[in-house]
Amino acid sequence: MLFRCHLKRALPQKVSCKFCAVMGKLQSKLKYSTYKYSRPDGFRDERIQTKAFQEYSPAHVDTVSVVAALNSDLCVSGGKDKTVVAYNWRTGNVVKRLKGHEREITKIACIHKSGQFFSASRDKMVMMWDLQGSSQPRQQFSGHSMVVTGLAVSPDTSQLCTGSRDNTLLLWDVGTGQCAERASVSRNLVTHLCWVPREPYILQTSEDKTIRLWDSRGLQVAHVFPAKQHIQTYCEVSEDGHKCISCSSGFGGEGCEATLWDLRQTRNGICEYKGHFQTVASCVFLPRALALMPVIATSSHDCKVKIWNQDSGACLFTLSLDGSGPLTSLAVADTISLLCASFSRGIRLLRVDHSRGLELQEVAGF
C-alpha cells in the first residue's frame, strides 16, 4: 500500500517522510474547531476557525461550577471535584491546586491584582487562600447552615459578605475571620452577591425572583428592585457603579433573559436582552475598549454565549459551544478575552475577533 507525503511522492506504508512525521505530531496537538454563529438579521452559518484551537491540560476532572479572573494572566476556578485551581490561561499551566473543601465549590471571589481569593462550597464553608502562602487556607469562615451561594469582597478588601440558601447574609472581618453582622430575610435564597465599586452597597439576587441592594453599614436592605417573573441567578455591577445586570432562569425561551438596571436615582429596569432558550447563568459587562458601543455578554445552559448592544438590547453575536453542556460561569480575562466554565468541557478561552465585525472565537480549552 502506498501513501503520499508532503512532496506528493508515493511511498510504501512502512516508509515515512521525516518532515510529514514531525508535522503530523504537531497537528495532533492542535485542533481546529467548527463554530456556529448567528447575526442580528437571523442569518445562521457554520465556519471552521482559521486559527488553531489549543487543548491544554484540564484544570478539573469534573464539572466546573465557577471561574473568576485573578489578574491579567491567572484565573481561579472551582467545581464538583472539590478543588480550587489557580491556572495560567495564557500558558496552559496549573499554578496551584488547593484542597480543603469537602464538597463542590460554588463561588469564587478574587482580590484583583493580588494573589488572594475566597472560595465557597456546598460544605457550608468559606475559605481564604493566598498563592504566595502555603497550600492551606489562610482564613476560614463558618457560620451558614446551608450551601454558601454568594461571595463579595469590599472595595478596600477589609470585609467579606457571604450569602446562603439559609436565607441569611453574613458580613465578616477578613483580618480576624469574625462575623460582624448577620441579616435574614424570609424566603431569600441567595444566588449571587457583588459589591458596588467605591460604595458601601452590596447587590444580591435571589430565588424569590427579586434583586436587593444592601447597605453594609448595619447590613440593612436599602432597596428592593421590581420582582421579575423567574429566579434571578446572577448579577454584576458596572465599573462606574451606575448600572447592574441580572439574569433569569427559564426554559424554552420563557424567562431566560438578562436585565439592565439603573443603580442611581430611578433604580428601574432599563433594557432586557432576550434570545437564550434556557437559564442564563452568568452575565458580564465587557471592557469599553472592545467595541464602539457599550456591550455585555451572557452565557446560558443552552450552550451559547451571546454579545449584546447594552443600549439597544440587540444581539450582536452568538457563539454556540456544542458539546459543552450547560455553561455555568463567565469571566472577563483581559480586554479581548473571556473565560467560560462549562458542565462537560472544562473552561473555554474565548477571544473577540474584529476582522469581520464583532465576533467570538473559541481559541483554547482547559
From TrEMBL:
Pfam families: WD40. It comes from the Eukaryota. WD repeats lie at residues 98-139, 141-182, 183-215, 273-318. The keyword Oxidoreductase does not apply. Coiled coil: none annotated. PROSITE patterns: WD_REPEATS_1 (PS00678), WD_REPEATS_2 (PS50082), WD_REPEATS_REGION (PS50294). This is WD repeat domain 31. Keywords: Repeat, WD repeat.
